[in-house]
C-alpha cells in the first residue's frame, strides 16, 4: 500500500483554474474560426486541434473536482464534520484512477455517507445533511455518479435515507427553518438523482430496481442494515414515486410490483389499508403541491399518475394483463386520501396507454381495447359523473384525460352513437370496430376504434367533459375535423344524406349530454347544449383563441379551468346570432332544433367546400358574386367564404347589432342555406348531374334539415324524459 497525501483546497483551485483556461481557449478558438471564415480561408484544421485540448482540460478539471469530493467524504469523521486542508488515502501501487473510475468511486462514497445518515439516530443540526446536499447538488447531472449512488444504497438504503432526511423537515421534530429548507431541497435532489440513475441503468436493471423499491417499502428485509422492527417505508416510497420522471422500465417495474402486492392484499381480505404508513406524515405534506393533495397521499394513485407520464409503460402494464385494467379502473377504492374519491391517476394512465401515437401505430387493436374497457369500466362506477355534494361532480378531475380519449377516438365515439346495440348484439366494453364512411370503398377509413356504452357511460363522461373548458373545446375541435373527413369522396346524394344523418345524430346526442349534470335548472343545461351547437362550424384557430380567452392566467393549456363562463357567454352569443331566432327564449327541443340545425347545415357546407364537393367546384353553375358569402379569387373566379371569414363576419355583427354588419351576416346565412338545394351547392347531386352518375334523388332542404331535426330531438328529448 502507498500513502498518498493531497490538499483539498489545492485540488479545487486547480480544477477551477483549468476550467477557466478551457473556457478562455474555447472563446479565443471561436473568435479565430469566425475570423478565418470571414477571410474565406481554405483550411482551419490547425484551429480544430484546440478543441481536443479544451475537452482534455475540462475532463481533468472534472476529475480533480471528483477526487476532492471523494477525499473529503472518505476522510469525514464519524461526527459528520468534513475535513479541510491536507488529507490522505492509501492505494495499492500508483494512484492511477481514471475519470470513469473516479465517478464510480465518488458515487460509492456518497452512498456510504447516505447509509451512515440513514442508520444513525436523528440529531438536530446533523452536519451530514449539508454535506450530502452539497454533493448531490454538485453531481446530480452526472449519470455515472448517480447510478453508483443508488446501486450501492440499494432500494432499502434509498428508502431509509429518504426517511432519515425527512425527519429533518420538522413536521414531527424540532428542526430549524434553515434545516427544514435544506432537508426539503435534499429530498428533491434524492428523487432527481434516482430518476437520473434509472435512465443510466439498463432496462432490466431499472425495472428490477423499481420492483424491489416497492417490495422493500412494504416488506423490509429483517437482515438488512436498514431494517427497523414494525417500520415500513411507505411515506418514502410515496415521495420517491410522486411525479417521478424516471425511465419507462423503472416506472413499469414499480407498477407491476404494486399490483402484485395489492392482489395479495385483496386475497387476504385487506385491500384498503395496504399502503398506509404508521403515524402522522413526517414530511410528505411539506413537499407535495397543494393541487396534488387529493391523490398524493395514496401510493397507487401516485404510481398511476406516473404511468400517465410514461405511455409505453402504461400500455405494457394494461395490455399484458387486462385484470390490471379492470381492477384499477373498476375496483380499487380511490377515496383513501379523503373523500370524495379522486380518479385522476387511473384516468391519466388509461389516457397515456391508449392515445400515445406510438402505441396506436404499433398496437392499434390492443390500444383501442384499453380505451373501451378502461373508459367503460371507470365511468360505470357508482356515482361517477354525479353530484358529490357541495356542487362538485364525482370524477370531474378526469375531464382532461377522458376528453382526450374521446377526441383521439372520435370515430369510435360516432360509431357507438350510430350503432343499434340490440341488432349488433355486442357488449361495448372491450369491443373494437373498423369504421367506414358511407359511400366509400376499400379499406376502413378509421380502423381499430373502441366502442363506448351509450346508455350509461357516455352521458356521464360527456357531462364531465363539459365541466372543463379545454376538454370541451378539444372534443368540439375533434368532432369538427371528423365531420370534414367523413364526407363521401364520391359525390352521391344518398351517401351524403346518410352521412348528414349520422353526424346529426352525434350532434344531438352530445348536445343532450354535455355539461348537463352541473346545474339542475333546465335552462342552464340548454346553455351547455347551445354552446356545443354554436361551435359546430368554428375553425380550430378560433377554438384555440377561446381557450386563451376564458382560461385563467397560466392555465390556457391545462384542463382544470371550469367552462361555466365560456358556456354562459357562448349561450348569450348564440341567442343573439342564430339566423332564424324568432323566439329568444329557446326552451324546448323542437325550437332549439330549429335554431341549431342551421348551424349544422352551415358547418356541412363549409366541410363540403373544403373537400371540393360543391357543385360550383365541379362546373355546375357559378356563385353569385354579389353575395356576402362569396369571395373573388385572384384568377377572377369566385369561391365560398371560409370558416375563418365567416367567424370574422359574426364578430363584426356582434359589435354592430342591427347595422350593416348584421345585415351582411343575415344575408350570408340565407345564401349558405340556399346552396343546399341549388346546383352550385349540394343540389347537383343527382343521376344526371353528379360525377360518375352515382346519385339518386338530389337532397332537398327538408331531407337534410329533417334528418337533423329527427336525430337531434331523439336524443335531446331525453333530458326532459
Describe the structure in your own words.
- The chain is 60% helix and 4% strand.
- It is mainly α and 721 residues long.
- It has a domain at 497-719.
- Strands 1-2 form a two-stranded antiparallel ribbon. It has a two-stranded antiparallel sheet with strand order 3-4. It has a two-stranded antiparallel sheet with strand order 5-6.
- The protein is globular, with a radius of gyration of 33 Å.
- The N and C termini lie far apart (91 Å).
Shape: globular
Number of beta strands: 8
Strand content: under 5%
Biggest beta sheet summary: 2 strands, antiparallel
User: Which spans have pLDDT < 50 for at least 5 consecutive residues?
Assistant: 518-523, 577-589, 687-695
Number of helices: 30
Widest sheet: strand ordering: 1-2
Helix content: 55-70%
Global mean pLDDT: 84
Amino acid at each position: 500500500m502507498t500513502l498518498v497525501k493531497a490538499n483539498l483546497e489545492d485540488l479545487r483551485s486547480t480544477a477551477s483554474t483549468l476550467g477557466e483556461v478551457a473556457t478562455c481557449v474555447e472563446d479565443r478558438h471561436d473568435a479565430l474560426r469566425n475570423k478565418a471564415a470571414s477571410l474565406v480561408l481554405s483550411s482551419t484544421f490547425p484551429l480544430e486541434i484546440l478543441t481536443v485540448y479544451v475537452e482534455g482540460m475540462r475532463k481533468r478539471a472534472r476529475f480533480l473536482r471528483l477526487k476532492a469530493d471523494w477525499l473529503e467524504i472518505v476522510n469525514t469523521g464519524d461526527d459528520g464534520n468534513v475535513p479541510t486542508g491536507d488529507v490522505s488515502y492509501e492505494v495499492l501501487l500508483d494512484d492511477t484512477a481514471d475519470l470513469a473510475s473516479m465517478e464510480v468511486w465518488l458515487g460509492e462514497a456518497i452512498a456510504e455517507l447516505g447509509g451512515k445518515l440513514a442508520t444513525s439516530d436523528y440529531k438536530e443540526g446533523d452536519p451530514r445533511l449539508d454535506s450530502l446536499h452539497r454533493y448531490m447538488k454538485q453531481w446530480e447531472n452526472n449519470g455515472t455518479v448517480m447510478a453508483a449512488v443508488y446501486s450501492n444504497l440499494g432500494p432499502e438504503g434509498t428508502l431509509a435515507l429518504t426517511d432519515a432526511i425527512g425527519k429533518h423537515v420538522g413536521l414531527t421534530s424540532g428542526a430549524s427553518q434553515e434545516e427544514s429548507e435544506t432537508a426539503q431541497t435534499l429530498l428533491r435532489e434524492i428523487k432527481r438523482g434516482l430518476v437520473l440513475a434509472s435512465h443510466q441503468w439498463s432496462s432490466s436493471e431499472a425495472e428490477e430496481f423499481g420492483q424491489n423499491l416497492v417490495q422493500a417499502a412494504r416488506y423490509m428485509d429483517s437482515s438488512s442494515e436498514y431494517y427497523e422492527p414494525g417500520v415500513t417505508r411507505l411515506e418514502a416510497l410515496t415521495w420517491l414515486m410522486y411525479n417521478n420522471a424516471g425511465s419507462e422500465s423503472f416506472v413499469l417495474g414499480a407498477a407491476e410490483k404494486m399490483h402484485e402486492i395489492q392482489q395479495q392484499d385483496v386475497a387476504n381480505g385487506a385491500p384498503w389499508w395496504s399502503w398506509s404508513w404508521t403515524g402522522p406524515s413526517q414530511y410528505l405534506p411539506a413537499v407535495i403541491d397543494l393541487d396534488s393533495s387529493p391523490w398524493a397521499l395514496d401510493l397507487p394513485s401516485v404510481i398511476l399518475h406516473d404511468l400517465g407520464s410514461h405511455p409505453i409503460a402504461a400500455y405494457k402494464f394494461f395490455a399484458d394483463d387486462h385484470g390490471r385494467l379492470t381492477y384499477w379502473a373498476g375496483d380499487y377504492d380511490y377515496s383513501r386520501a379523503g373523500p370524495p374519491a379522486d380518479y385522476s391517476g387511473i384516468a391519466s394512465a388509461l389516457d397515456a396507454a391508449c392515445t400515445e401515437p406510438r402505441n396506436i401505430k404499433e398496437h392499434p387493436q390492443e390500444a383501442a381495447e384499453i380505451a373501451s374497457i378502461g373508459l367503460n369500466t371507470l365511468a360505470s362506477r357508482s356515482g361517477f359523473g354525479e353530484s358529490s355534494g357541495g356542487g362538485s361532480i364525482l370524477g370531474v378531475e378526469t375531464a382532461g384525460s377522458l376528453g382526450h380519449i374521446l377526441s383521439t377516438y372520435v370515430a369510435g365515439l360516432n360509431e357507438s352513437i350510430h350503432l343499434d346495440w340490440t341488432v349488433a348484439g355486442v357488449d361495448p366494453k372491450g369491443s373494437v370496430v373498423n369504421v367506414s364512411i358511407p359511400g366509400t370503398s376499400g379499406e376502413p377509413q378509421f380502423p381499430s376504434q373502441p366502442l363506448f356504452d351509450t346508455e350509461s357511460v357516455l352521458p356521464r363522461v360527456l357531462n364531465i367533459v363539459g365541466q372543463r373548458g379545454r376538454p370541451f373545446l378539444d372534443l368540439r375541435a375533434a368532432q369538427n375535423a371528423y365531420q370534414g373527413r367523413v364526407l363521401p369522396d364520391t359525390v352521391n346524394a344518398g351517401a351524403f344524406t346518410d352521412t348528414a344523418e349520422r353526424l346529426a345524430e352525434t350532434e344531438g346526442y352530445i348536445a343532450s349530454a354535455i355539461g348537463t349534470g352541473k346545474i339542475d335548472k333546465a335552462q342552464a343545461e340548454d346553455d351547455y347544449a347551445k354552446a356545443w351547437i354554436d361551435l359546430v362550424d368554428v375553425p380550430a384557430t378560433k377554438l384555440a383563441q377561446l381557450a386563451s380567452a376564458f382560461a385563467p392566467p397560466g392555465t390556457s393549456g391545462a384542463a382544470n379551468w371550469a367552462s361555466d363562463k365560456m358556456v354562459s357567454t357562448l349561450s348569450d352569443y348564440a341567442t343573439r346570432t342564430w339566423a332564424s331566432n324568432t323566439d329568444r327564449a329557446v326552451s324546448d327541443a323542437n325550437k332549439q332544433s330549429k335554431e341549431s340545425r342551421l348551424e349544422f347545415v352551415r358547418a356541412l357546407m363549409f366541410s363540403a367546400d373544403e373537400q371540393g364537393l360543391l357543385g360550383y367546384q365541379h362546373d355546375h353553375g357559378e356563385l353569385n358574386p354579389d353575395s356576402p358569402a362569396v369571395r373573388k379569387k385572384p384568377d377572377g373566379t369566385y369561391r365560398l367564404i371560409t370558416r375563418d371569414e365567416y367567424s370574422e363576419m359574426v364578430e363584426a355583427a356582434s359589435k354592430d347589432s342591427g347595422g350593416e354588419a348584421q345585415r351582411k351576416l343575415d344575408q350570408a346565412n340565407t345564401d349558405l342555406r340556399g346552396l343546399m338545394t341549388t346546383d352550385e351547392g349540394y343540389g347537383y347531386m343527382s343521376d344526371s348531374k353528379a360525377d360518375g352518375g352515382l346519385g339518386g334523388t338530389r337532397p332537398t332542404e327538408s331531407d337534410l334539415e329533417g334528418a337533423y331535426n329527427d336525430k337531434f330531438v331523439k336524443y335531446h328529448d331525453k333530458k326532459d324524459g
